[in-house]
Structures are given as structure tokens and as C-alpha cells.
Specification:
- This is Baseplate J/gp47 family protein.
- By secondary structure, the chain is of the alpha+beta class.
- The protein has 8 helices and 14 strands.
- The strands form 4 sheets. Strands 1-6-4-3-7-8 form a 6-stranded antiparallel β-barrel.
- Helix 1 crosses helix 2, helix 3 packs across helix 4 and helix 7 runs antiparallel to helix 8.
- The longest helix has 25 residues.
- The two termini are 52 Å apart.
């Protein structure tokens, strides 16, 4: 049976009643009497003790009730801490005169707050060439999709002032980890303690390796006997499929921790299988549409995994529980979404049918 902490006034009334019961003829119902003042002060002290005990029990375990100090205490015990923001990086294509040099450290920008620098020197041997750039500020704001136009901050003779983000995009930027992210990793450490290189260990290492990684899956023998394949998802990014920067960081991190004899370890992004939805919705308002899309995106994050697909019943449920929805018909897909080994069902698009 749960214990309910009494309100301050309830505690005061209990103490007043006790005093008057055990000291017949006295008055403790008002603060203008000595006994009333004692009852008032004692109730305040007891209420403070109740609040302190409530704080302690909420922070006994690092669950959803715990405040930051409670979660951090458990994190320090396991050697975990908030993951810092990471810098986005990726290739851009520049054009110019053959033989022209673009120096390392050349600055380009998308907006005033999105500045990138080249990480190596590029000598054009043709009309165009690709060079790696890295964001100057950490966080998701540094990620750019392929095809985005960025400009040189200062002109370089023989080089066009506009560069284009190449295939794969500028990726890998992630914000500082928040309390909920640290809480989830602490919980995973509690539920999946290290086992000397089990599949769960590989998943844990992937989740620790880069702040962008929100989910990871490990499997055995896909690339041959004794091999381990680790796949990643970055659900906080517009595209959950990780880029090369994230994959490389996870590979390096896992290589430092895997058992010495386990050399056939492959860290790869899953192959995206976009799911196109067709939905008839009542009411067909912008707010309800946004709620349906949010629920479907959340469904992908909760249920989709490489080779796992999505159940049509879960898709219909996600549409039905959207805030403001009163009726709907899911016209596509019409059956369970299936995926091959390594494929991940990702949110593609929604066509709203009137």
C-alpha cells in the first residue's frame, strides 16, 4: 500500500488535535497561543522531513522520477557521463580552374552560424573536385543535406565562390546529450552488464560511441562464421541512416573494446526502405495531420529494426491514437511492411486522400 505524504495543513491539524487530546482544556488551534505556535512550527519541520524523504526515494533509482543528481550518481558509478556535442563533417564539391589550389582551413558558410573549414588541401585536376569539410560548431545544426549550396567566406582566386554538398551530405553533428539520454544509457548498463563481448556489448558500445546514435543492433555470422555485424540508427536526425562520420566513429570505438580474437567486426548503416503512406483522415486539418505524422515517425523509432518490418495493425493503431483524430482509413500500406536482412523501414511520405 502506497504511503501518501500529508499536506502541511493536514499535519498541523493532526498535531493540534493530539495536543488538545492529551492536554485537556488547552487551545492549540491558533498560533496566538504558545501551544498553537509549537504545533505550527513542528508541522513545518515534519513537512520538511517528508519532502526530504520523498526526494531520496525519487532518486533511489535512475528512473523517470529521478532528478539530474540522482541519475548522475548512478552514471558515475558505471563510468558514464553526458556525451558532448560532435562536429558534423562531410564532402563538398568545388569548381574552378584546373591546377588551382584550395588551401586547407578555407572557411565556407551556409548561414552566419553554420561555418565549415576544409580539412585538407585540394588541387583541382579537373573542372571540379571534392574536399572534406568540418563544422566549426558542434550540434545537429551543422548537418546539411546533399545538394545544399554553401559559399566561401573569403574569395580564393580561380575557385568558384559556391560549393555544393556532395552525396552523403555533411553528417555526424549531434547536440550535447540531455538528461534523458544519459538516463537511458544508465538503464541499459544496469539491464545489460558487460558479458565479455556478447552481442549486447556491441550494441552498448555503439550507443556509447557517438552522440547521434539512438539505436543499435548486433548480429552474428552475416559476413562469415564468427563475424559480428553492427547496424546503427540516428533517430534525432532528419535521416535516421547514419553517415560515414558516425559509422567510422563507432567502428573505431568498438575496435578498442572488442575481444582481441574477434576481428571480423563490421559496423554498417542499415539500408533504408522508405514506407509511403496513404491516409484518409477525419478531421482533415493541418494539426491532426501533423499529429498523425508524429505518431507514425514514433512508430518507426519504436518498432522498426533491420529485417524486422512493421505490422499493419500497429500502423493503423498509430494513426488512430493521434491527437484530434476521429476517424481514418489507412489505404497504404495494406499489409505488413517486410524488410530484407539489413533493411530498415523508415518513414517516407504521407499522401492525404480526401
Amino acid at each position: 500500500m502506497a504511503f501518501t505524504i500529508p499536506a502541511l495543513e493536514e499535519t498541523r491539524e493532526d498535531i493540534r488535535a493530539d495536543i488538545e487530546t492529551w492536554l485537556p482544556g488547552t487551545q492549540a488551534r491558533t498560533r496566538r497561543t504558545a501551544l498553537g505556535v509549537i504545533a505550527f512550527a513542528q508541522a513545518g519541520g515534519i513537512n520538511g522531513l517528508h519532502a526530504h524523504l520523498d526526494y531520496l526515494q525519487r532518486n533511489f533509482l535512475p528512473d523517470e522520477q529521478a532528478d539530474a543528481p540522482g541519475v548522475e550518481r548512478w552514471a558515475r558509478r558505471y563510468g558514464l557521463w553526458y556525451r558532448p556535442a560532435t562536429l558534423a563533417s562531410g564532402p563538398v564539391t568545388v569548381t574552378g580552374s584546373i591546377g588551382t589550389t584550395l588551401p586547407a582551413g578555407t572557411a565556407l558558410q551556409y548561414t552566419q552560424d553554420q561555418v565549415y573549414v576544409t580539412t585538407s588541401e585540394l588541387v583541382l585536376v579537373g573542372a571540379s573536385g571534392a574536399v572534406e569539410v568540418e563544422a566549426q560548431a558542434g550540434g545537429q545544426v551543422g548537418n546539411l543535406a546533399a545538394g545544399t549550396r554553401i559559399s566561401l567566406v573569403s574569395p580564393v582566386a580561380g575557385i568558384s565562390s559556391v560549393a555544393i554538398v556532395a552525396a552523403g551530405g555533411i553528417t555526424g553533428g549531434a547536440d550535447d546529450e540531455n538528461l534523458n539520454g544519459l538516463r537511458q544509457r544508465v538503464f541499459r548498463r544496469m539491464s545489460e552488464p558487460p558479458k565479455g563481448g556478447s552481442l549486447a556489448d556491441y550494441e552498448t558500445w555503439a550507443l556509447e560511441a557517438h552522440a547521434s546514435v539512438t539505436r543499435a543492433w548486433a548480429s552474428e555470422h552475416e559476413q562469415g562464421a564468427g563475424s559480428v555485424t553492427v547496424r546503427l540508427a540516428c533517430d534525432n536526425n532528419p535521416d535516421p541512416i547514419p553517415g560515414a562520420a558516425v559509422v567510422d566513429a563507432c567502428k573505431a570505438y568498438i575496435d578498442q573494446r572488442r575481444p582481441a580474437g574477434r576481428r571480423s567486426v563490421y559496423v554498417v548503416p542499415p539500408v533504408a526502405k522508405p514506407v509511403a503512406y496513404r491516409v484518409r483522415l477525419v478531421p482533415n486539418t493541418a494539426q491532426v495531420k501533423a499529429a498523425v505524422e508524429a505518431e507514425l515517425r514514433d512508430l518507426h523509432r519504436r518498432d522498426a529494426e533491420p529485417g524486422g518490418g512493421l505490422l499493419i495493425s500497429r500502423i493503423r493503431e498509430a494513426v488512430s491514437i493521434a491527437a484530434g483524430e476521429s476517424d481514418n482509413t489507412v489505404l497504404a500500406p495494406t499489409a505488413n511492411v517486410t524488410t530484407a536482412t539489413g533493411e530498415l523501414a523508415v518513414f517516407g511520405s504521407i499522401e492525404w486522400v480526401v
